[in-house]
Write a structure and sequence with these properties.
seven-stranded mixed sheet, 10 helices, Aminopeptidase, globular, alpha+beta, single chain
């Protein structure tokens, strides 16, 4: 199944926030121009790595950095990356481990969740979840919930997602604005793209209802899988990821590993 980062919608989002887009060999390449220095090129979530096309784009955009984050990697392709001057980065740009939940029947999904999640969904059944149509209001709720402790997408970025994904994006919050999430859908897979909670919502278990409603929304959109978009990976440890990873794991699903980020630095021509 095609990853979100190789879809038309995601390329449109990046284009709206200032990236240049090239499509070649059926793949999307993302180019970030940096004044004076040249550019950085990203190729993400693909099993095909067309080195000749990358060389052409490097010359065209005067690239000083190329970032490749494969979806899968066999030994032959790994050897080719090393031979072409790429090195495995200690700090990947994309999550290197995630959980994917099959979206079958509603009752089957509920019964497949782990005991903690089923209990929390039942206990929080009176927490009211609503779809937030105002980007500005969602941004304000998110910002108030996390303060300066976490990165919050700008209003411009959220609007760019909306313009690119349209009805295949939803913003959900509880009625008190203590928990929320942004969900995207593309090519029959839904993504829990961002989420936030507060101390209050952790007591009411509101985030369980946010995700459960996001899963039901994904079902309505015809998605066959629900991607939790990142959990803690001991290969590339990130401080602070263990807590929410435990939360995400309570929903069950299949853990998926990605190879990581391969980076090459070069002098722009």
């Amino acid at each position: 199944m095609t990853d979100l980062r190789q879809t038309r919608q995601y390329s449109q989002f990046l284009s709206r926030i200032g990236w240049s887009i090239e499509k070649s060999d059926g793949l999307y390449f993302f180019i970030k121009r940096i004044p004076v220095l040249g550019s950085a090129i990203k190729l993400q979530r693909t099993t095909l790595i067309p080195f000749q096309t990358i060389t052409h784009l490097c010359k065209k955009y005067r690239a000083f950095q190329i970032i490749i984050e494969p979806k899968q990697l066999n030994n032959k392709t790994r050897d080719a990356l090393f031979k072409n001057g790429y090195r495995l980065s200690a700090a990947p740009y994309l999550p290197t481990k995630s959980i994917v939940l099959p979206l079958v029947g509603r009752d089957e999904i509920l019964s497949s969740l782990k005991k903690d999640a089923r209990y929390s969904i039942r206990k929080s059944k009176n927490v009211s979840i609503r779809e937030e149509h105002s980007i500005e209001r969602f941004h304000s709720i998110w910002k108030n919930a996390v303060g300066n402790k976490r990165h919050v997408l700008s209003v411009h970025e959220l609007n760019s997602f909306r313009q690119a994904f349209g009805d295949d994006m939803t913003l959900l919050t509880d009625e008190n604005g203590t928990a929320g999430g942004m969900f995207l859908c593309a090519n029959e897979r839904a993504y829990y793209w961002v989420g936030f909670t507060t101390e209050e919502s952790r007591k009411t278990l509101a985030q369980y209802q946010v995700i459960w409603n996001g899963i039901l929304w994904a079902k309505q959109k015809g998605a066959k899988e629900f991607d939790f978009e990142g959990i803690y990976d001991s290969r590339f440890p990130k401080r602070g990821w263990e807590g929410f990873s435990h939360f995400k794991r309570s929903f069950g699903g299949k853990e998926v590993l990605y190879p990581g980020s391969f980076t090459k630095w070069r002098l722009p021509l």
